[in-house]
Amino acid sequence: MLIKVKKTWKDLRDNKPRHEGTDRRTFLSRGLATVAFGVALPDIFLTDFANKAQAAALVCPPPTLTPGAIGQIFSNGGSSIGSRFISEAQAASAAVSKTMANNYGITGANLVKLGPNLVIDGTSAFGFTLLQGPPGYTGGPTAWQANVLNKLSGGGHLGPMNQDDGAGENTGLVGDIGLFKASQMGADLKLGVNVTLAKWANGLSAHTLSRSPTPAALAATFSLTPAATGLTNAGALQNATDASNALANAMDPVLGITARIGGSQLLTSAGCGFTNNVPLANPTYGSTLFTPTNIAALTSKMTVANLTTAEQAYLAAFYQSAMGVAGGVIIQNNGMDYHGTSPANTIAPADIAEARQVVMFLAACDAAQARGAFIYTTNGQAISSGVQSVATTINGAAVNVNAPVAQDDAGGAYNGGLIIFYDPKGAPPVAQFTGTVNATDGSVKVDPTVGSSQEAMAGLYLSALKWINNGTLPQSALTAMNAAGVAGATARTKTVLI
Amino acid sequence: MKNTLNKIMTTLWAMALITTGCTGFKGTNALIDSSSSSSIVGGPGGSTTPPVASSVVAGSGANVAGTGALSIGTTEGLVARVTNGLQGNVSPLAGNYAKSLLQVRSNLPKVADPTKATGFDQAQLLIYAACSDLTTGTTPLMQSKYKIVPASSIATNQPALIAAGVLMLDQYTASLASQGPTSAQVTAAFTTLLTQVSATAANTSTIAFMSVCIAANSAGSTLMGF
Q1: pLDDT at A365
Q2: d(CA A288, CA A65)
Q3: DSSP assignment letter at A20
Q4: CB distance A231–B224 less than 8 Å?
Q5: Distance between terminal CA atoms of chain A?
Q6: Bridge-partner residues for A229, per DSSP?
Q7: Residues of A265-298 as b/e, b for ≥16 C-beta within 10 angstroms?
Q8: Which of A27, A55, A306, A485 is most buried, by the most CB atoms less than 10 A from its CB?
Q9: Which of A165-169, A328-332, A474-478, B45-49 has the least mean pLDDT?
């Protein structure tokens, strides 16, 4: 039976608590709280943004001049490095072992000790060229040898670069200095470098030029296009740089730049990189630096005009490194895998060209009266079967030199990363060679503590920096190398050669 | 006390946004460069496994949208950014822009990883050249496009100069420079720049415009990544 009950509106009301009565005081307090939220909260929020937007100003290393040149040749391919610099121990063995001398592409009978652990074959294409010095050097080769070559020492890591030619060219056998050595430019000069750098060298500031640089090309790299007149000047360009950093800081809270991996480093690297452009607003900045015929310190020492344009560029670059304007100067020489080629037409010219680069380095250090450290690496080694007399011209004079008869690849037998030190005061550091040498055939074995080519490269560059830095290892370099997994404290005891 | 209050307010604000369905700033996502090689996982339909922190490498792209590694524009990408920043008013195929590109191309950043890239200073040199193309001719583009009269003083041109800088930076930031929460700071940066430039009596409006142009485009193309 369905029973209908008549319901009224009263029955249909929601059984909800009735609204409590609100007095005026309570109403006002709630309203004020709402207003406070509505006004103060956005203000607090925006203040937080604003505080983050006005982050601390970018701090860049000051453009100080740290005298002292650092240079590197990466001989890409694997030359007969036995005919470059060798240690006193290697020299002693080569003098008595014809097998070893032949393997190295030297005579073994004409060894000249330039300084502690630094020996060359005075008749080799490389060694003879080194002994002659630059054209027109005041006092000739005799003075060059007394004033410059007599102030050298050598060191190196034997054995860790044991890749065959070509196989090791991208294994990080090229380094960089960047800001490890404070310089006015805050950047290195890389001439023809296109191989993979050592891990710790990635991201370091550098200007890269072609393989056969000229003073004009160097100058153009360090000038503004178009010319600054009427468009900017050093002050305005600095202002613009500061403003770009301020704008990045302003947008950081919105875009989360520094919250992301690499963001903070980007702001520092790029922001400080912009600052290095400020001197370029001077229209004569580049040409003043890199036209060696206009640099009195160079023209008073040698006949700069008789150098090739590439040699003039090397000389100017090394000089600015020595003066503290530039960081390091790194040269990549391709085509050095010259085994099986003509000693007269290919090997001797290549060896002479590399020796001339070292001459330019030393001449620059001499002119600047600054310390120097020069690193030589290669990704292989061409074993020789002896030497061949070759007629050539050095400094305008017809001479005969002994070129290696390079036969084949033997990077596994002998390879190394070498370093020479120059002290204008004649007290270069006593440096060591690591690794062991077979006294019969000259083959080498790497020191287990050195181990890898990466440790060797880090050690070579730390040795160079330590020399330029008057005995102190730059913390920035250590930090970068440690981050790359090399140059820990234990490794450094063996890989830093001074 | 103030810090505690800030945290409380910020939490409440976030909760309110979530409740109302707002997703806050989408600027970062909007700025992901189409040329980036990063693959974005996570989010609707993607993997929900959070990445191992060590697997996120600078420049290799983000495994989690909105966080992770930052990438930068390289060579052609950088050139395109600058051209877009100047709204196509200059061309890398003509004028000083082209000449400078010929010189600096090999030195521009080549890798997207900002911890490995070099050549940032060269990017600024390229921008300088591109900006200079806006100053040439009887009625230069700095006047016809950005309303800056070369013959007038910096003070007279100041509003237009600031507007030009903000407009250029907007091209890189999806208008967040002018409309975002830090727009006041952006304007302040340009104002400070012009105060500094005008402090040297010999500096003209052309020099001021170049300074604004260099600042905006250097920041936008190189300092912000994607």
Answers
A1: 98
A2: 16
A3: P
A4: no
A5: 112
A6: none
A7: bbbebbbbbbbbbbbbbeeebbbebbbbeebeeb
A8: A55
A9: B45-49
